[in-house]
Structures are given as C-alpha cells and as structure tokens.
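Re: Re: ligand-bound prediction request (bumping)

Still looking for help on this. To restate: I need the protein modeled with NAP bound, output as structure tokens. Inputs repeated here so nobody has to scroll up.
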Amino acid sequence: MTIAVLGATGMVGSRVIAEAVARGHRVLALSRKPGEGDPNVTPLAVDVGDPEAVGEALAGATATGTTATGATMAGAAATGVTATGATAAGVTATGVTATGTPATGTPATGTPATGVTATGTTPPRPPDAVILSVRTFPADREFLVGATRTVLDAAARLGTRVLVVGGAGALRSPGDPDLPVADNRAYVPDEYRAVALAGTAQLRTCEAHADADWVYLSPPAELEPGERTGRYRRGTDTLLTASDDGRSWISAEDLAVAVVDEVENPGTERHITVVHRSST
Ligand SMILES: NC(=O)c1ccc[n+]([C@@H]2O[C@H](COP(=O)([O-])OP(=O)(O)OC[C@H]3O[C@@H](n4cnc5c(N)ncnc54)[C@H](OP(=O)(O)O)[C@@H]3O)[C@@H](O)[C@H]2O)c1
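Reply:
Sorry for the wait, this slipped through. Here it is.
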C-alpha cells in the first residue's frame, strides 16, 4: 500500500511510518519540515493549513505509486509542496514542479511538469490511505478543525480513506457513557481540558463531513514513547483501561501497530480506541 502520513515528524507519525515501512508499505511523509527518509519514504513539505497544497500533495505528488527501487528519489514540488527527498523515478504530476533530478531521465530543475512525464511507469495515483496525526502547542482548536476538514475534503475527492489520530477526550467515560472523557477530571486534568475539547471538535468535524470515508482513533489517556510489544486491546467509543494495572495507556509504538492494522484491515466502526495489553 501507499500510505500518506500528515504529521510525519511527530511522536505518533514517525512511529506509524516506521511500522508501515517495516511491513513493506510505501509512505508519503508530510509535515512542514520533513526529514530525509528511507527509500520507501517520500518526504514532502506541506502545511496542512494550505488546502491547495494538501490536495496537490495527495493527488499528484504520490509518484510512489511506481516502484522506486533504491534511493531513486528526485524531488517534486507543487505550489506549496516541496519534496525534500525523493519521489519515484521520473514521475511527476500535474501542477508539480520538479526541483530535483529524476532518477531516470534528464535533470528537471525548474521544469514545470504539466502531466505525467514518466515513460514506462504507472501514472501517479492517490495513496491508499491517509493518516492525519498533527497537533500544535499550545492546542489550537481552529487549526485542528480546519486541518481535519482540509484533509477530509482532499481525501473525499480522491476516494481515499482517512484515519485520524485524535484525542482521548472524545471518548465516553468507562461506566458513565454520558460523561465525555474531556469532562472527566479522573482522566483529563484542568490543564489538558482545552486539548481534550479540541479533539472532540475534531471528531465532530469528521462526523459532520458528508462525503469522506474516515475512522477516528482515540488514544487512551496516556500516550508516550515506549516499547513495541505488538499487542493492544481494541475498543470503540469508550475509554479503555489496561487489565493489569488499570491505567489507560499505550506506548506510541503499539499505537502505531494499531494504526497500521486498521489501515490494512479496516473495521466497520467510525470511532475506535486502543489500550495496552499485557502479555499475561
Ligand atoms: N492521550 C491522548 O489523547 C493523546 C496523547 C498524545 C497525542 N495525541 C494525539 O495524537 C496526534 C499526534 O500527536 P503527536 O504527539 O504525534 O504530535 P507531535 O509530536 O507534536 O507532532 C505534531 C506533528 O504535526 C505536524 N504539524 C504541526 N503543524 C503542522 C502544519 N501546519 N502543517 C503540517 N504539519 C504540521 C508536525 O510537523 P512540522 O512541525 O514539521 O510541521 C509534527 O509532525 C494528535 O492528534 C494528538 O492530539 C493524543
């Protein structure tokens, strides 16, 4: 599969990319300042606040639909989109300006690509799935809502499913389904309430979207870098706690496992969550 990850450099996004690549997927890594990737990762500088750039990046710059064997990354830049690493050999997309050197063919510095310029390769195609995993410090509800709408709009035009890595605050409280976690001080201290409410607004944005195919994954209350065990327990719209210690937590590595599992085998629920699962 080709998977686009928005928020590629983040705690979650970087682990999702590592998990996806380890499973043999190609990744389009999008953020404002993406780093260099491995040959199966195409970094693109995109501000998710720029709907045109997001749309172009998802629709046209996914030249990874071809097989870029080895480090055959050239560089493709659309309006507001800059490839800092690589795209597949010789394929650029409508409205994309190649600023690098294609792996095959002539140097393309400054040459606007008005169509698919590759010979003998498949045309650019949209990613099979988009992961949205962005946030700002401090939490910015309007940014999150706008970014989510932008990505849902672009993905809906392409017919691509979106997995939103959202917040625990959007879940129901265990044992009290009418109490949103965002309003539950047992899980959300006052200082995190704005973040939690921004996540709830993000879920509402998904629910209000008429056309997009989306799933909203709420992490448990605690999400931090840690160990990849490959295990987790999956639920729907109610916060889960681990059976061994009663904490609502998971490592970012295991969250990434759950994200890629969901992309590979989509469930039917729109709102899901996961929690750490002990080995016993
Ligand atoms: N318990 C919980 O509920 C919980 C805990 C942690 C995280 N989360 C959620 O998990 C998701 C990911 O969080 P995280 O911890 O991985 O975040 P993070 O480490 O802060 O990373 C944020 C990512 O967003 C990108 N980004 C920010 N503004 C952007 C913009 N304008 N355009 C494009 N990219 C932009 C950043 O890259 P650039 O700066 O390069 O653009 C970065 O890759 C968020 O939705 C967060 O709320 C939930």
